[in-house]
Amino acid sequence: MVHFLLKESWKFFPYPSFKPNQEQLLSIVYKAINSRSHAIIDGASGLGKTVGSLAGALQTAKEQGLVILYAARTYKELDRVIEELEAISREEQVTGLSIRGRSEMCINEAVLRFSNDPRTVMELCSDLTQSGKCAYYGNMEDAGTVRALMDDFLHTPTGASTLISESKRLEICPYEMAKLLLPHVDVIALNYAYLFSSPIRENFIKKLGRPLSQHVLILDEAHNLPEIVSEFESDHLTLSTINSSIEEAEKYGKPTVKRFSDSLLELLSEMGEGEHIVDLKSVVRDALRMARIDEDLLYFLEEIHAFGESIKSLQLSKGKVPRSYIHRLGEFFLKGVETSGRSDFIHLMTKEEDLPLRLDIIALDPRTSTSEVLNSVAATISMSGTLEDMESYRAVMGLPENTIKTALPSPFTDEQVLVLSCKGVSTIYEKRSPEIYKRMVSKISEVVRSTPGNTGIFCSSYEVMDGLLGAGLQRSITKPLFVEKQKARSLEQDRLVEEFKKMSKHGGAVLLGVMGGRFSEGEDYPGDEMNSVIIVGVPYPKPSARVSAQIKYYESLFPNKGMEYGYIIPAMRRASQAAGRPFRNLDDRGVIVFLDYRFSTKYLKRFLPYWISSKLITVEDSEGVLEKIVLEFYSNRSKHHQNQKN
Ligand code: SF4
């Protein structure tokens, strides 16, 4: 039973009234933190989860002397935390800081000229500070300036960009300033990597000035966390690094490394095309044998790692970028040996046409990254608009069984959101044919015609996207078509999406992209920027050794759930993310069309967010039906708008 405080008691809530379901969110957050437990909250975008969770958390965290760590993925999300804290601080005393990595906070041109790679920046920084060559670091000794700036920053919540610009103005290091501020603020907004990437976490925790047990953790947009945190523990090595290590070995006179790398290439070249599960420890052992290097495997790797380190030091002493491919080789294979034989890791070798050979160390268990933090903090709140199925999220993240799970009711009315699932079409592999693509194109054109402005189409893969284009999608619509390219640069993609959005005021356009891609996850389309969204197919990944290993691993941990946790739910989250793109604010209105009958099956429907699944209507496979329903929705919407104006 959720305990509700009186509305006027929420002193950290800065706005005059709550949005629908927002007060319930505050109460759940308050209760979870107050009882030092964990909560998972699934709620639609636009209900004010950032300010709601902050207000609910501050209410109890301040009393209990707990600091809030608010973790998210993008700068935009972290900036939002500071904006909301600023609103809160107009009435209540609250401090906050959003931080970025050293490579983004460093202002020393001597470093930035060389590289913005985090590790290189760290090495350059440590060299410059130890040798007394960074003036910004040296200026930190001016206690008066530092104290005055700290007072300023502790007066109001401070975003990373303000911290950087103000520190720059006073010629002191923003990164060092952030380190000084961390132990004194109520809320720290930070990227997931600070908590879930082990080398970064070790350093970061030391700077907090208090144990993790005195912190509360809010995880925003948590739906992708299982995949993101697994990435932190994974690693890969490409063919070019092995080739470069050979050149480096020749240059610095290290024949054993040259022989080892040559043998490695020979061994790998013997494997056929495709994805192969390998054991990196055996690969190293075989390469050493072939190269006639009679050394203990671990000793050899540690030795070349140390040799690479000495190359980097030499480069630094000559004022060059500290980079060593031999060091990288040693580092990668040491991790390979460490993870060899472990059931929570697999090693892969991938050789594909047009792509360079690549070795991967893949972490299969998100708990490898999360357990230390989740078991140490006082409480956690995981939030997103697409966290169904919450039990799978709880299990794979390693949250306890008594975690509170809440799906907030839909804040959208039937006049706002129409959700349709079409019979007669599917992207099931065996059913894909020119005929089925034509049928899909016909349904898409019905939706585009009956939508007053912009329509987004998100496909399960580039192959399906090509299928639609091949079936005449371009010809079947009269509005301009913007197509996401698989290998386009991000600037080019940004321009394309901006052009598409602008078309909402000029008769509308159609955006064609893939689920899980840049347009369907990183971009919002509020208001009229996207009225209708069409989801073409269920975005299951292609069968691969990696996917099979993930399913098998989850099956071993969660009997009868491997397929669901490792394959079905991640795909449904991608589909839900894409479907939710036009609904970012509570007054957004639009149509979601699932162009695959599987979305309306009882089994898959339950993995859609409640605010979508509760409105889903199945549409018969008959020409013109879709157009009629969508047209009717938008004409009712116009009437509704008109009534509201009157
Ligand atoms: S001390 Fe600061 S400014 Fe100087 S190199 Fe390091 S991060 Fe950059």
In order across it, which strands form the biggest sheet? 3-4-2-5-10-1-11
Largest sheet: 7 strands, parallel
Q: Looking at the structure, what is the overall shape?
A: globular
- CATH topology grouping of the largest domain: Rossmann fold
Mean pLDDT: 93
Low-confidence stretches: 1-6
Structural class: alpha/beta
What small molecules does the structure contain?
iron/sulfur cluster
Q: What is the name of the CATH class of the largest domain?
A: Alpha Beta
Strand content is: 5-15%
> What is the number of domains?
3
List key phrases describing it.
646 residues, alpha/beta, Rossmann fold, Fumarase C, Chain B, domain 1, 3 domains, 7-stranded parallel β-sheet, globular, binds iron/sulfur cluster
Give an overview in words.
The longest helix is centred in the middle third of the chain and has 21 residues, at 297-317. It contains 30 helices and 18 strands. α13 (225-233) crosses α19 (367-376), α14 (239-251) runs antiparallel to α15 and α17 (297-317) runs antiparallel to α18. Strands 3-4-2-5-10-1-11 form a seven-stranded parallel beta sheet, with helices on both faces. A seven-stranded parallel beta sheet has the order 14-15-13-16-17-12-18, sandwiched between helices. The protein starts with 21 loop residues before the first helix and ends with a helix. The chain folds into three domains: 22-232 and 367-407, Rossmann fold; 235-363, Fumarase C, Chain B, domain 1, CATH 1.10.275; 417-645, Rossmann fold (3-Layer(aba) Sandwich). The protein is of the alpha/beta class and 646 residues long. The chain is 50% helix and 14% strand. Iron/sulfur cluster is lined by residues 102, 106-108, 111, 125, 128-129, 134, 136-137, 173, 175-176.
